[in-house]
Amino acid sequence: MITLTHFLVVSAFIFCIGLYAVLAKKNAIMILVGIELMINAAILNFVAFGKYDKINYGGQIFALFAIVLAAAAVAVGLAIILNVYRYYKTVNPDQIRELKD
Amino acid sequence: MNVDLFLFYAFATLAIGSALLVVSLKNIARALFLFFVVLFAMAGLYLFALADFVAITQIMVYVGGVLILLLFAFMLSNKELLNDLQQTTGSLFSLPTWKVLPLILFFLGIMIYGIIEWQQSTPAWMTTAIQNNTVIKSTDNNIHQLGIKFMTQYVLPFEVISIFLMMALIGASHLSRKDLQK
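ok -> structure tokens follow
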């Protein structure tokens, strides 16, 4: 029998791995991958709780909305990354410092 | 041990293990291809929560769209790969590993503790759902129900998110044009 706790523990692990990628990686693309991992962990939680909501289907529908939002975020984020790369010739967030005061 | 629990553990270890590999590999191309495996394993986990349509959407949107975009961006900014090893300090992000690991483990500990604490008291709406037998079962026709819900109860968020997605895609294609007009 797969209980809700199984899903919660798995998604906690995936979320922490995504957080590690966001905090530790030096490449903007890997930071985006970390954000995607965190969004996936959140979607897993939505879906696991949505199993108990047959009347509204809230969990599954919100999971679908979250997938669409993640896709839009990746599209815009990658366009910005490519533009930044064209101007600065780097995708390392630490070296983009012309707007610093 | 029954089969579904075994398959659940297999998918969970596959997802967590390959996610760990994704963040630990130095080679970004290999990490991105391993990200495929993570996304497929996560889609398998959604199936165990009886969300078949979400799993299919995950495979179509993520593997078909997002991952191709990531590979595309990686290959267009390829020269940066060689500089990936250089050391940077002094900002909030891109901390060294020995600083990040305790932070992450602490956060994971808090989450596991929260889950254990939360287990003691199931929320009221879940107990009533179990009592009234309104839990999604494996024999239900999920896609049919989701379609009806999208077009009746959730029609306003559906339309708003359609407009939002169109705006985001137009904005992305505008941003990534070769020569922006002055």
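The mean pLDDT of chain B is 84.
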